[in-house]
Amino acid sequence: MLMRTDQMTATTSAAASDKIRPAVQLDGVTKRFGDSVALHEAWLKIQPSEFMTLLGPSGCGKTTLLNLVAGFLEADNGEIFIEGALVTETPAHMREIGIVFQNYALFPHMSVANNVAYGLKTRGVEKKEIARRVDEALELVKLTGFADRKPRQLSGGQQQRVALARALVIKPKVLLLDEPFSALDKNLRGSMQVELKQIQRELGVTTIFVTHDQSEALSMSDRIAVMSAGRIRQIAAPDDIYRRPADRFVASFVGDANVLNGRLVERRGDVAVISIGDVRADVPAASIAETSVGEAVDVFVRPEHLSVTSRGASRSLPGTVTTQVFQGGHVDLYIDAPGSARDRILVRVPGIAALSSCPVGTEIGLTIGSDDIVAFPSGETP
Amino acid sequence: MKRTPGTMLLRWSGRILVAAILLFVLLPGVVVAISAFNDRAILAFPPQAWSLRWFWRAFSYADFVKGFWNGLTVTVWASSIAVVVGSAFAFAIHRYKFVLRDVLEGILLSPLIIPHYTIGLGVLILASQTNVGRGFPLVIFAHVVMVLPFVMRSTYISLENLDTRLELAASSLGATPLRILFTVTIPLLIPGLLSGWLFAAILSFNEFTATLFVSSQATQTLPVAMYNYVREFADPTLAALSVIYIVVTATLLTIANSFLGLGKILNVDAH
Fold first, then answer.
1. A173 in contact with B, Cβ within 8 Å
2. Could you say which architecture CATH assigns to the domain B55-265?
């Protein structure tokens, strides 16, 4: 449900991107720390009201990028624009940006109300107006009645709401979220995600969200920029990232993926035909443009795109069930298929029937049931 | 663990060792405290008859009264100046990189290298060279030099414990660096500054060696007055003063601890 709407938003903003001035724009921004390059020539355009996620493992440069937009770090090369204005050398306190940190960074010596009011006081807003807007912000994050508490008297989730209210009350040009959910327990995390997304959409505030959690990224974002080793690997809507990853890194970092041993059979324009044993499949040709016909390729297939059939069925890969993992709504089967893949293959079977029909040791056949598979040149390191 | 004779022996010898160490540390204080209540005009232990008259003498002896007020004057000025100067140094060392930063840090954080009599002598030589009189400013100056490192260390630890994201958050909310300093940084450093002040005050009030060099009859502090007293009299007045001092300091520290959480500031509590 969430995915559907996200997709629509992404399409609209993509279509409008030529006309509307980007809310945030990075032109070839590079940041070095000593000899190491934390961010290498980042090019990024974020549309007004867009929810853009920077996704990647720790040390990939996503937090560096966030700090550069916030003005906490200075870029070594490149330019940063916010709402069309050049801000590369503008100090943080003049950028009009709201930020929520992982640990919330609430001022411990101030009440909730004074925390939220802080950004209004620095702007010289008059007292009555401050009181009105603080009330409004606390209502938005459902913390009415908590105004006089100190941060230490609040739970983690409540502290996060205060941090969000404090960042939003100044009507920031951009909202920056630095792994805001990682300190929350799992149940609370889910409901806060839904709530944050709702508030973000309601206010239409342009948001940059940093996370290493791919499911968080897929569920919340309009678009995702996947990063690794200081570079942006792919910028696309969540479903595009999942269905058509641009490279091996994206394919293996976002979602689960099985790597099967394939071979390029022929090219038909944009599409390439590959074979894995007896199975043939179409993949986008672009990602294996350099590979010649007959050469080996690595084929990435999602666990839910594989299905189990009887051994010897036509167009199937032979394998043996080695492990069953019951996951509630589905069953994960790990299949040994030495001819088709180096590692064990993960198959996600909906329902619970597989528990009894595929006990450990069963010899089965695997079929590929989707066009959303991609291939990359064999053995290429990410 | 099984209760063999060997483990029992170990356990008991451990307890005896702890008791012995405690006794060793507390013995001088306990002996002096008890001697303070001796009725006779000698420092003897244990006393044969009991009296509180030495406490009365401690409170009424003119040199002690004057020494107390002199000491308090010096202490308040020296600690306050040291807190302002020391915090500024600590802030600079913690936040900025500059030439000789490491040297400055080393000098200011290692007070044990330069003995107090050296400081006293040095200040005295400087004073006579520059014709500065031996008034309060001279004593205060010497005390600032001595307590500065302790104040710096206290502020430095508080700065280390301060989450820099609080300052980043404030700047994202539009606060200028100066505004951040006064609304976020300093308020959060106040417990550290106060405890630094308190330690400086205790050190300064107790300081004897350097003060002996730089003070005069008019500016002598309580420890110097006590030194002069003990050269003439050997009655329990000094013991009574010790008791008063220990009680007052312990009370102040207890109050300070409950308000400031000194353990946290001094990194004693492994939180």
1. no
2. Orthogonal Bundle (1.10)
